[in-house]
């Protein structure tokens, strides 16, 4: 199966769930499950009620699938996606590396020996998912746009 690169994903617009499944290697029922648990935002629907997906959903699914292949659980992947640009800022990734696979040099992924403490808090600012009232972060991380309230 060919990898979904940013350039390939950018050419996709309004594709049905079966095509999305084929492109990303993610089963149709799994795509629906990811929508249900809010790992993937619900896509727009046609007048007939069919889901139509675009480049954002394609990239998100490819990222989730690759993370699962590398041994990350869904909650780990959700934590990696805790905010726009936070993962890139934490890793020092710039636009020069756009399109590079994260499991190949110059990147090196190492699972921690002990899991980090995670914090859950209320979502802040403008969001594409106002119905999802929470956000995740690593306790004490400097890569948060706004610190979590102290409990």
Helix content: 25-40%
Distance N terminus to C terminus? 46 Å
Number of strands: 2
Low-confidence stretches: 5-12
Per the CATH scheme, the topology name of the domain at 6-109 is Multidrug-efflux Transporter Regulator, Chain: A, Domain 2
CATH architecture of the domain at 6-109: Orthogonal Bundle
Strand-residue fraction? 5-15%
Secondary structure layout plus pairing:
Elements: H1 6-10, H2 17-24, H3 28-36, H4 55-69, H5 74-80, H6 86-91, E1 118-122, E2 134-138
Antiparallel strand pairs: 1-2
Give an account of the 3D structure.
This protein is mainly alpha-helical and 151 residues long. It has a domain at 6-109: Orthogonal Bundle (Multidrug-efflux Transporter Regulator, Chain: A, Domain 2). Helices cover 33% and strands 7% of the residues. It has 6 helices and 2 strands, in the order ααααααββ. The protein has a two-stranded antiparallel sheet. Mean pLDDT is 76; it is low at 5-12.
Write a compact overview of the structure shown.
The chain has 151 residues and is mostly helical. It has helices at residues 6-10, 17-24, 28-36, 55-69, 74-80, 86-91; strands at 118-122, 134-138. The chain has a domain at 6-109: Multidrug-efflux Transporter Regulator, Chain: A, Domain 2 (Orthogonal Bundle), CATH 1.10.1660.
Kindly list the characteristics that best describe this protein.
151 residues; mainly alpha; Multidrug-efflux Transporter Regulator, Chain: A, Domain 2; two-stranded antiparallel sheet; 6 helices; 2 strands; 33% helix
